[in-house]
Design a protein that fits this description.
Layout lengths: L1 H62 L5 H23 L9 H23 L4 H30 L14 H6 L4 H11 L31 H10 L7 E9 L5 E8 L8 E6 L5 E6 L10 H14 L5 E9 L2 E10 L2 E13 L5 E5 L1 H6 L12 H5 L7 E14 L2 E12 L2 E8 L5 E7 L5 E3 L2
Helix pairs in contact: 1-2, 1-4, 2-3, 4-6
């Protein structure tokens, strides 16, 4: 009995140590989760900042070749919105104001300067030469900032930088890590801003456009069993897959989510297919398998994507551009009507370059927009449209007719031209009815992506 009493304190101590250890582990786990969530928030803000600055650069470049007050007004409005969003993203980063002061000033003044030009364009008071030179300087400055942010983003992706270290208490971490932390990188970014020109501006401007409902959905509502059948129909080698579960998703295009798993030694990855509730159309599909060494050419993969769309009943589709990265190629196809390219009606097809397998489809743009249009008859000729282009543009080519979106509920028939300003490539759209400049698109070309005209 005495021996038992002597063991009780030992047992109690072990239980206490175990309980404390379990509690400590729980606290550590909670802290890790909170730190991960905070880190993800910072990364999201940085990625959004990079995207908005990239769009600012594109919009500024477009403003250099826009030839009408209407086109300029649209660009200046969107530029203000992007600059405002970029500053909001910058403010979410855990970086001292001293390290982002010039960058914040640049974003603020670009947006407000865009609004100033918007007001002047509305009054017909733009001084083209002086404004063009200022916009050109801002464009070059935004290009530098864009490059610096992409470099910072790449360092984070490679595990060289950790934004959450900037908010940890104590200077020992900062002192130990030194240049590895993001502080030094933001100091480098600030150097890009030293030559930022002083601008005079007079306030903000904003606008909002509501999205409409899908126009491409046809047919009656289907049930889950029908969704299972149709999901297997859109998958290559459907006999090698089995339906694991069927869920649902809402939104603009309510759909069934059908999850497929490979069977009988099939080496493919798990596939998720979204089949629309109305009509049973393919909304999107994704396959997450690992990609091997590329062996297929882009042209061969493009032909495979075209044949796949035809097999699903998507006829009269033409490729408009592609992007190649990480062993896959993503092709955008647009519908045509009476030899007019319908840019709103696009489908993306992802092809694996190791064996040509269709890995993904994104048809929501097509489903949202596709319908038979009453296309207007062109009132100006191709030659007349070409004369509307900015005289600074060089190497002008193209001239096919295309239907382009100018708002969620408005489309315009336009002649599509490709042209250059220095090293930058642009697509210019001249309205085929009234001859106005309907749209300006800058094309970013690199080893991974190319626009096909």
């Amino acid at each position: 009995m005495n021996k038992r009493f002597r063991l009780l304190p030992l047992v109690a101590g072990l239980l206490l140590v175990g309980a404390l250890g379990y509690w400590g582990y729980q606290q550590f786990t909670v802290r890790q989760r909170l730190e991960t969530a905070l880190n993800n928030k910072y990364y999201r803000a940085l990625y959004d900042l990079t995207e908005n600055v990239q769009n600012m650069e594109v919009l500024l470049s477009k403003s250099l070749v826009a030839g009408t007050p209407e086109a300029q007004s649209t660009l200046f409005m969107e530029l203000w919105q992007r600059a405002t969003a970029a500053q909001a993203d910058l403010n979410q980063l855990p970086v001292a104001d001293a390290l982002t002061g010039r960058t914040a000033k640049f974003l603020t003044q670009v947006g407000d300067y865009a609004h100033s030009l918007l007001q002047q364009a509305a009054r017909g008071q733009l001084e083209s030469d002086r404004q063009w030179e200022t916009l050109n300087r801002l464009y070059r400055q935004s290009a530098d900032l864009n490059l610096a942010l992409h470099d910072l983003e790449g360092r984070i992706a490679d595990g060289q930088l950790y934004l959450n270290e900037l908010v940890r208490e104590g200077g020992r971490t900062l002192g130990r890590e030194g240049p590895r932390l993001a502080n030094s990188n933001f100091q480098a970014i600030e150097k890009y801003m030293e030559n930022f020109p002083t601008l005079i501006y007079d306030g903000p401007f904003s606008d909002h456009l509501e999205k409409r409902t899908a126009r491409g959905l046809t047919g009656k509502n289907i049930d889950r069993d029908e969704a299972r059948r149709r999901a297997l129909e859109v998958v290559e080698g459907k006999s090698g897959y089995a339906v694991e579960r069927v869920g649902e998703t809402r939104g603009k295009i309510p759909s069934y989510l059908v999850e497929l798993r490979p069977q009988n030694g099939n080496g493919g990855g798990n596939i998720t297919v979204a089949i629309t509730r109305q009509g049973g159309h393919l909304n999107w599909m994704t396959n997450g398998r690992q990609i091997g060494r590329p062996t297929w050419s882009i042209e061969k993969a493009r032909q495979k994507a075209r044949e796949y769309l035809t097999s699903l009943g998507f006829n009269n589709m033409v490729p408009v551009y592609h992007e190649q990265q990480n062993g896959v190629a993503v092709f955008n196809f647009a519908a045509t009507q009476d030899r007019v390219v319908l840019y709103p009606d696009q489908i993306k097809v992802t092809v694996a370059l190791d064996n040509g397998q269709i890995l993904g489809v994104e048809a929501s743009g097509y489903l949202m927009n596709h319908t038979r249009r009453e296309l207007p008859r062109p009132r100006i000729s191709l030659l007349e449209a070409r004369k509307k282009l900015n005289s600074r543009l060089k190497e002008v080519r193209g001239g096919r007719l295309a239907l382009i979106p100018v708002s969620p509920d408005k489309e315009r028939l336009a002649y599509e031209f490709q042209a250059r300003l220095d090293r930058d490539l642009f697509l210019i759209y001249i309205d085929a009815v009234d001859g106005s400049e309907a749209q300006v698109l800058r094309v970013v070309r690199n080893l991974e992506g190319v626009l096909t005209l």
